[in-house]
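> @MW can you paste both from yesterday?
MW: sure, first one:
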Amino acid sequence: MEQWLDKAMQGVDPDSPDAFLHIFMNLMGMVPWAALFWWNVAFVAVGALIGWWRGRLLEGIVWAAVLGPLGWIVVSLRPRPKPAAVPPPLPRKHRT
């Protein structure tokens, strides 16, 4: 923890008005953004696959993007959509 605080406070004057911004930017610089991006892409891909399998592709993508792996559970537990009622075809007209 001490090392993280040292990295966060590196080059920051605690008495300056923008000290919070500098500390925040130092902390954001320590976040592994590339790994987080690729994990999120994997979560959305699996969510899309589960959503496609359950007949809810868009919901699978959205839930996985918002909740990650927990979105997979949400999509998996929702019932399959009922097919829309389609009226019977009209009779053909006879040529006379």
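MW: second:
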Amino acid sequence: MEYLERRVGMVNRRLESVIESTAPDELADQLESVVLAGGKRVRPAVTLLACEALGGEPETAVDFAAGIELVHNASLVIDDIIDRSEVRRGTPSAWAAHGYGPAIIASDGLLGEAFGLFLGNERAMQIVAESMVELGEGEATELVDRPTTEDEYMTLARRKTGALFRAAAELGAVAGEADAATVEAFGEYAERVGVAFQIRDDVLDATAESDDLGKPAGQDEVMDRPSLVQVTDLTPEEGDARAREQSELALQALDRTGVDDTDAKAYLRDLAEFVVVRER
């Protein structure tokens, strides 16, 4: 656990330094309330671990790791506005705390700071830009072209959640100087982890209590949102089985990277197994 805590600490310190340099102070305060209020830091951890699995030093990937976390948080601000969710990570969401206008500005500020961390690396910029296109298409699909089948739902989950996971791993692989095939294998690993994460999220929303989740439960039904449980006739148990299938495919992709068995690879394996049993 100390291994991961040290790496998350690196990311948090980099995030703090980015926010401290943001002007005006009011914007910095809003970014701080969004980014430093908590969060699992799963995506930046994937970035650092992918880099280390390839023999790189985590310090070489920390800007990419912080950047992808900023992009993720920017998307959460908009998600909460769309869903009218007043709670995020057990505290007031950005729009609930500051209003719609300041929340949207905060989201823009997070994206601006993120792209500042990717400058100077063309591959990194392309990876993040492509992931944001996928994310935007996923958000639009959720609103105006709702899935009606399991296959359509899986496409939505890949775009809405899997895309940023893929970007996180690919950024780490780029920082670790991997070839194109290895970058792709890391990307597939993480995308499938992201899809498994989203499926489990849908199941938890339908079955868990709000206090356990740290955010309102039952929102998919209230908002008539196309979760796996809403779109299909699958039971929560069958949904979890679909998540496990994605986890297994993720592990197969990780093996295709050809990296040695190290602590970093072991933690990546643990992550693929954890996302399908997590309780919040």
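> thanks! Residues 2-274 form a domain with the Farnesyl Diphosphate Synthase fold (CATH 1.10.600.10).
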